Amino acid sequence: QLQASGGGFVQAGGSLRLSCAATGNFFSFNTMGWYRRAPGKERELVAIVSSGGISNLSDSVKGRFTIAGDMAKGTVYLQMNSLKPEDTAVYYCRATWGQWGETWGQGTQVTVSS
After folding, report:
1. What's the rounded Cα separation, in Å, for the pair 91 and 44?
2. Do 112 and 87 contact (CB within 8 A), yes or no?
3. Pairing assessment for the beta strands 44-50 and 31-37 based on DSSP bridges
4. Residue 107 DSSP code
5. Strand bridging mode 89-97 / 108-113
6. Cα(12)–Cα(18) distance, integer angstroms
7. Kindly report the CA angle at 49 between 65 and 44, in degrees rounded to 5?
8. Mean pLDDT over each residue of the chain, to the nearest integer
9. In the chain, which ranges are continuous DSSP H helix?
10. Other CB atoms within 10 A of residue 58 CB
């Protein structure tokens, strides 16, 4: 199970840091990442990091967000700087293992005011 935290309300230009941690017994993850769903939109990938340390971020957040994770510890963080109103969404963390295994955390709301 993944536990996400760190969402909140911030003004445009501000920063937030999301955290996600696996609880209980878990496999060593292949990837951990963050997704978001804005009102009226489909869920989209924000950032992902692999067990090899390779990270990818969506074009919309490059230069503003960074992701860091420890697959063995089951933790992943998303540092969000220079937040924009369009970053407002529910953010979800996700972890994968093996060929098909995956688990999602509960969402955490991020609201950015203009």
Report:
1. 10
2. yes
3. antiparallel
4. P
5. antiparallel
6. 17
7. 65
8. 95
9. none
10. 15
pLDDT in tens, 41-68: 999 999 999 999 899 999 999 999 999 9
Q: Which two tokens stand for residue 53?
A: 């340390």
Write the pLDDT tens digit of every residue in 17-33: 999 999 987 778 999 99
Tokens linked to 77: 């963080």
Q: How many CB atoms lie within 10 A of CB 108?
A: 23
**Residue 55 exposed, middle or buried by CB count within 10 Å (0-12, 13-18, 19+):** middle
Q: Is the dihedral of CA 54, 7, 96, 30 positive or negative?
A: positive
Residue 91 vs residues 72, 74, 99, 109: alpha-carbon distances, Å:
22, 17, 24, 6
Cα–chain-centroid distance for residue 48?
A: 8
